Amino acid sequence: MNSFGGNHLNNTSFKCPILDSKDMTAKKIIDLAIKEVRSSEYKKLNLIWLEATGCSGNIISLLNAQNPDVIYLFKEMVTLTYSNSLMAAEGEEAFQQFLDTLETEFILVVEGAVATKDQGLYNVIARYKGKLVTAMEAVKLAGEKAKVVLAVGTCASFGGPSAARPNPSGSVSVSDFLDREVIRLPGCPCHPDWVIGTIANLIAFGMPELDEKNRPIIFYGITVHDQCSRRSSFNKGIFAKKLGDPECMFKLGCRGPITKTDCPVRQWNGYVNWPIEDNTPCIGCAQERFPDGMEPFIRY
Amino acid sequence: MGNKITINPLTRISGFLQIQVEVEKNQIIDAKSSGMLFRGFEKMLRGRPPIDAIYFTQRICGICSTAHAMASTLGLEDILDVSPNKNDEMLRDYMHGCEFIQNHIRHFYQYTLPDYVRGPEIKPLYTTNNDYRLPENLNRKLAQHYLESIEYSRLAHEMLAVLGGKVPHSHGIFVGGVTVNYDASKFIKIKSILKSIKDFVITRMIPDVYTISEYYKDYFENGVGYKNLMTYGVFDTYIEKELYYVGPGVFLNGKRQELDTSKITEDIHYSWYEANQVEQDPSEVTIDENVYKEGAYSWVKAPRYKGYSMEVGPLARMWLSGLYTRGISTMDRTIARTLEIKRIIEILEGFLERIETIPTVQGRYEFRDSGYGKGLIDTTRGALGHWIGIKEKVIKNYGIITPTTWNTSPMDSKGLKGVIEEALMGTRIQDVKNPVEIGRIVRSFDPCISCATHVQSDQYSPFEIRVV
To answer: Is the same domain home to A45 and A165?
Structure first.
């Protein structure tokens, strides 16, 4: 099923990553994926969206998706079988749908870290046949059987805010917890295009090209600084003195130079804005050491 | 002994909630509400730069991050003795209003509607329970609105991002006001979006909630609870009638009263926490988690006001503002939430008429060695409080009581039940094998468990913690 798209993607050498990221936007991949999904031999994969130790903000961010939106995602691209936030069923009946999915071919999305303290009891996601089911057990159960595991958001990818010092819940990232390959889609929250674009890549072309931290290069290949709309101000050495100023915020602690996402060109929420254009620094929310290693967020 | 019913996960809320009830002769005779997630933000915040709390505390909750940005900013401004000018204050409140719209639309269509309406035929939004009452044509229409609504909640977030950079976890709400430099392009973008949302709310959402209420009239009779309501106030710094919504206040034992925030206490008797001594001096409170604590059943603590469990949220606000007086019940809560969006939209329209295209006023903020501040404000789900203590220029103590902590609290040491627990008591369950009433009642409070579980400890504690 990957003959057309697969060749196209894999044979592209990334000579100029900036140009490539512009060419290969999520939208383009999604268009091709949709074509693939529509072709007769494609069978929709199931998808479990498992909320673990986090703020459940990634599913909220996913609901902000546009072209395609979540309805398209669930109708045309994958079959969502489990989501604590969205599913109509509740209680044991809901968790039964989680268990039933394990016997099928499915993608596992985890948002949130894995709380490991006290046998995982800091995060219980269900009660089944009278027994509590921790998020830790659920991630293990599904993680071992899933065709692909996506860690969505910075908590799932790297531990993130849930594992911030002193890490009261003993939270670890999904990759640290599972002994298998995990695609990381960090971001606090993860941009809906990064999730849907990655799923589209999997459907249409197979595994996306990943960097050394297992992040898809199409979204996480270049630093914010390299594509920043305020780069010329940095080059000229003109710096903002406080939030609200129109210049480069490097001296206010902007983490754009070390943060790899396509925020400057993609932008957020209907592609209308992003933190730096709101006159605030990038706080490195998609980086491995967020939040502890990214502080202070604002340097005065 | 009655039948025990456990619902876990109670889906279509934010976070993890378990509800256990005991039913005798089809009536609930006991109810327990348990928050099932603990992350420990107060512990994490200790030692961090105070100003970072604005962005850090937003990570408590993905659905109401702006609420935490507001409370945190107000607390820090209290310490710094800074306040925004009116223009920036209106911009900030506009952003906060966008979150109300986003939340309420998602709560009504994505979280509540499947309780009453057979959802759109897309897995897993679709289920069958034995108590769907709408005629086929109306059901089809409302299920279609479920799908349409996604565009409008998304647009509410888009408005917020125009002013706040991105959302969830926005950047633009900050000490001193906002960071955005408002201009005509932003003005017309958010104005046009607000108009389309208003059209949706007026022509779809409000008629939809009344349609549901027509077919589920018995839900005006259940989920009543204590009828004690509380708000910290929101959109209440304006003298203009069009902009003013509701000030701080309580409705206690059938009477309106002034709010006295010094009367707030917390109790951990049935929560998975332990304190080092039974009676605690407010300035030396120390508590820690203990998931194996005998008799405890929740990560949520039990906040009380003058010893009472207080309901917070849209109905409390609409009631105390005098805009909704029909009653207090499952359905009243759901209707009040929907009508509140209309009021919020009117306030935002008022802001749009008044906000000027002038640059934001920001400064460089330096904290003194020590200080103490609080930020109390009503947010989408109700009364939110951040209490911040600073020592040696870093956060020494950070206390948070969220709206859902008020609504989903467990019993306290005196045996007084939490708000949702009490609202479930006495409820008639038609079919114990399919107890749809429980989820309907609980969801009318719009619980957010990601927010609700916190541990408050160390110095500068603003409230007393009772453990006996």
So the answer is: yes
For residues A184 and A249, membership in a common domain is answered with no
**What does the block give as tokens for A272?**
């209308």
A65 to chain B: which residues are within 8 Å by CB? Answer: 154
Residue where a domain terminates, one of A170, A185, A220: A220
Q: Do B37 and A53 touch (CB under 8 A)?
A: yes
Residue A94 at interface with chain B, using a CB cutoff of 8 Å:
yes
Question: How many CB atoms are closer than 10 A to CB B387?
Answer: 25
Give Cβ neighbours of residue B397 (< 8 Å, ≥ 6 apart).
Answer: B42, B46, B387, B388, B389, B457, B458, B459, B460, B461
CATH of the domain at A243: 4.10.480.10
pTM more than 0.90: yes
Interchain CB contacts (distance < 8 Å): A and B: 254
Asked whether residue A203 falls in the same domain as residue A233, the answer is no
pLDDT digits (tens, 9 = 90+) for B293-334: 999 999 999 999 999 999 999 999 999 999 999 999 999 999
Query: Given CB atoms, is B6 within the 8 Å cutoff of chain A?
Result: yes
Domain-embedded: residue A236: yes
How many Cβ atoms from other residues are within 10 Å of residue A23's Cβ?
Answer: 11
Give the Cβ contact number of residue B364 at 10 Å.
11
Name the DSSP class of B71.
Answer: H
Asked which of A201, A220, A239 is the last residue of a domain, the reply is A220
What is the pLDDT, as a whole number, of residue B226? 98
Residue A300 lies in a domain: no
Q: Which structural domain range is residue A63 located in?
A: 3-220
Instruction: With cut-offs at 50, 70 and 90, classify the pLDDT of residue B420.
Output: very high
Q: pLDDT digits over A216-271, tens only? A: 999 999 999 999 999 999 999 999 999 999 999 999 999 999 999 999 999 999 99
Q: Which domains does chain B have, with CATH numbers?
A: 3-466 (1.10.645.10)
Nearest chain B Cα distance for residue A67, angstroms: 11
Q: Is the ipTM of this complex over 0.90?
A: yes
What's the total number of domains in chain A? 2
* Chain B CB within 8 Å of residue A95 CB: yes
List pLDDT tens digits, range B17-39. Answer: 999 999 999 999 999 999 999 99
Run of H or E including B178: strand B177-178
Q: Which residue in B37, B162, B292 is closest to A123 by CB distance?
A: B37
